[in-house]
Amino acid sequence: MNATPRWLTAEQKAAWDSFIRMQEKLIGRLARHVQADSGMSAADYIVLAKLTEAGGRMRFMDLAKLVEWEKSRMSHQVGRMAKRGLVAKEECPDDGRGAFIVATPAGHKAIEDAAPVHVEHVRRLFVEALTQDELDTLARISNRVVAHLEMQPD
């Protein structure tokens, strides 16, 4: 396939570059705060947040898909978290190849302690920078891009 690249226009590149810079700065800053405030990595936090939002128990592959991680990355992350007592892996009785990831009592406590501080950082660094109309617009744009991504081949 030797098609000529469809380069971005200056305006498209500026929008893309601004989005990437904002995302990297925001995620980096939030990750540093989570680590400093709770001792958890950003990966620990996202796994525990998604797991507890889903009732504290999810199939391994469903959790991996939810956070957009490869199976190997999720496996390593779950292994590290299990060693620290934050999650446990349970075999799936219906499917010998599948497994459930379960938030332990220590995992529930860790996310319950970390979430209020994290949400204050999100409010201070993100929400307070925008008006409600801008937040609504950003939510619509984000949802449109996610819907578009879901229609594209992986």
Automatic annotation (TrEMBL):
GO terms for molecular function: DNA-binding transcription factor activity. Coiled coil: none annotated. PROSITE patterns: HTH_MARR_2. Residues 1-147 form the HTH marR-type domain. GO terms for biological process: response to stress. Gene3D superfamilies: Winged helix-like DNA-binding domain superfamily/Winged helix DNA-binding domain. It holds the Pfam family MarR_2. This is MarR family transcriptional regulator. It comes from Micromonospora radicis.
